[in-house]
Write a structure and sequence with these properties.
Elements lengths: L1 E8 L2 E5 L5 E5 L3 H7 L6 E7 L7 H12 L3 E3 L4 H20 L10 H21 L5 E5 L6 H8 L4 E6 L6 H4 L5 H8 L4 E4 L2 H15 L7 E4 L2 E7 L6 H5 L5 H14 L3 E8 L6 H14 L7 E8 L6 H21 L7 E4 L5 H10 L2 E4 L8 H9 L6 E5 L12 E3 L4 H13 L2 H17 L2 H24 L1
The structure holds 6-O-phosphono-alpha-D-glucopyranose.
Protein name: Trehalose 6-phosphate synthase /trehalose 6-phosphatase
GO cellular component, one term: cytosol
GO molecular function, one term: trehalose-phosphatase activity
Length: 472
């Protein structure tokens, strides 16, 4: 038996060099990073998009050959499909809707058509590879029609689905013209899970009201199948982050950063460029902090890492300009010859450098307006080992349910962000360590492997139940 993980993006992406050769690197984003560190006893395969649109069959072949060596099976998209399915329906319709950015949602027929087309393309690819007794675990909002499509083709296949972003309340979800088809698509899975109980509750209420069906607690019978839903918060590879300082590369980077930031406090912020992450609110809060607390001028630096993402989608490109302007305004106003308040990086970092930043940072400032989970907050806490450190966390992040020892804030209240920064800077070391240790106890238990094992256990349980049901 094999486990097939299906996601829009493979954990590796291909990039074409000027001389025509391809180079491969790791993909950004919590999903790929998190799931790639997953250990299973089953042979693990991955099906997804390789991060590039190529128009020659020979190029597809070269990319496939390289990726297949890692058990990664690419699904190739045309430029039009990429535009309308990925930038369009996935990231201009579903993403803003699920993150409560209702005014940003765009409805276009060509988006929906491409979304159906690409989900069907994934379905074809899966059917050409998997056997009836394999596990097919579909990830995330880009592939919500896929469980239903697969169920029609392979009625007894084990199909699981995990939703990595928020599932909005029915009042919002009902706005989507294709709400019925999407929900029917999801119900093609045997087991559907979400990060939090609230997302799960919203899904159940949307399904009941849109499709006129009735759940019995967390299960529903449709035809000869029972479908179960559950809340399972995704964890991180805790040991990897908790032991980073033993890695000589990380240690070297730690020494470098400690020399750079040694005499003042460092606040760290790490995100993909996204309006849901509250990056502007964070900058407004930091700016207010500088304005109201001149005693900290020259003593606190905000290191802001923004990983480029979806920059062809209008809202993202506009946000980039606003962030650049805001950072320019803060630095222009407060910088001195030997101090720049916001150290801004618009690119990704290697794992080693990022881990070193987590290790060195006195404070992590995580202020999403909405976030399915947010693994950065978890990675920061794990990396602190037995050292002090403070997490300032938005209550709108899925992980706020678990990380109750963070200083929790409402990111829409920028004065609250300002006050949280002051509170964090003034928090006694003993309290910092206590809070970090409490959160570490939770994270070291709910790891990525535990999350996957819990998912598999419940999924297996419901599949066996359905099998017994069919045999009756
Ligand atoms: C979030 C989503 C993932 C997505 C990732 C990166 O974590 O839940 O499904 O892969 O963002 O976004 P991108 O559009 O670059 O794949």
């Amino acid at each position: 038996m094999k486990l097939y993980i299906i996601s829009n993006r493979l954990p590796a992406k291909a990039c074409k060099e000027k001389n025509g050769t391809f180079i491969f690197s790791r993909s950004e984003g919590g999903l790929a990073t998190g799931l790639n560190s997953l250990k299973t006893t089953d042979e693990k395969h991955w099906i997804g998009w390789p991060g590039i649109c190529v128009d020659k069959k020979e190029d597809e072949q070269i990319i496939s050959e390289q990726l297949e060596k890692l058990n990664f099976h690419p699904v190739f998209l045309s430029c039009d499909q990429y535009k309308n399915y990925y930038e369009g329906y996935s990231n201009s319709t579903i993403w803003p809707l699920c993150h409560y950015f209702f005014a940003y949602t765009e409805y276009k027929n060509c988006f929906w058509k491409a979304y159906q087309e690409v989900n069907a393309l994934f379905c074809e690819k899966i059917c050409s590879i998997v056997s009836a007794d394999d596990y097919v675990w579909i990830q995330d909002y880009q592939l919500m029609l896929l469980p239903g499509m697969l169920r029609k083709r392979m009625p007894h296949l084990r199909i699981g689905y995990f939703h990595h972003i928020p599932f909005p309340s029915y009042e919002l979800f009902r706005i989507l013209p294709e709400r019925g088809e999407i929900l029917q698509g999801l119900l093609g899975a045997d087991f559907i899970a979400f990060h939090t109980h609230d997302y799960m509750r919203h899904f159940i209420s949307a399904a009941e009201r849109v499709l006129n069906i009735d759940f019995q607690l967390d299960e529903i019978q449709i035809g000869n199948r029972v479908i179960r839903v559950e809340a399972l918060p995704m964890g991180i590879n805790y040991d990897l982050y908790h032991s980073v300082s033993e890695n000589p590369e990380v240690q070297k980077a730690i020494n470098r950063f400690q020399n750079l930031f040694g005499n003042h406090k460092m606040i760290l912020s790490v995100d993909r460029l996204d309006y849901s992450k509250g990056i502007l609110h964070r900058l407004w809060g930091f700016s207010l902090f500088l304005e109201h607390h001149p005693e900290y001028l020259g003593k606190v630096t905000l290191a802001m890492v923004i990983v480029p993402s979806r920059d062809q989608v209008n809202q993202y490109a506009e946000l980039k300009t606003k962030i650049d302007e805001e950072i320019g305004a803060i630095n222009g106003k407060y910088s001195t010859i030997d101090w720049t308040p916001v150290c801004y990086f618009y690119h990704g970092f290697s794992f080693e450098e990022l881990a070193a930043m987590y290790f060195v940072a006195d404070i992590a400032l995580v202020t999403p307006l909405r976030d399915g989970m947010n693994l950065v907050a978890k990675e920061y806490v794990a990396t602190k080992q037995n050292n002090p450190g403070v997490l300032i966390l938005s209550e709108m992040a899925g992980c706020a349910v678990e990380l109750t020892d963070a200083i929790q804030i409402n990111p829409n209240d920028i004065e609250e962000i300002e006050q949280a920064i002051v509170k964090a800077l003034e928090m006694p070391e003993r309290e910092q360590k206590n809070r970090i240790n409490h959160m570490q106890a939770i994270l070291s238990n709910q790891t990525i492997n535990k999350w996957a094992a819990d998912f598999m256990t419940e999924w297996n349980d419901i599949c066996s139940k359905n099998q017994r049901f069919r045999l009756k």
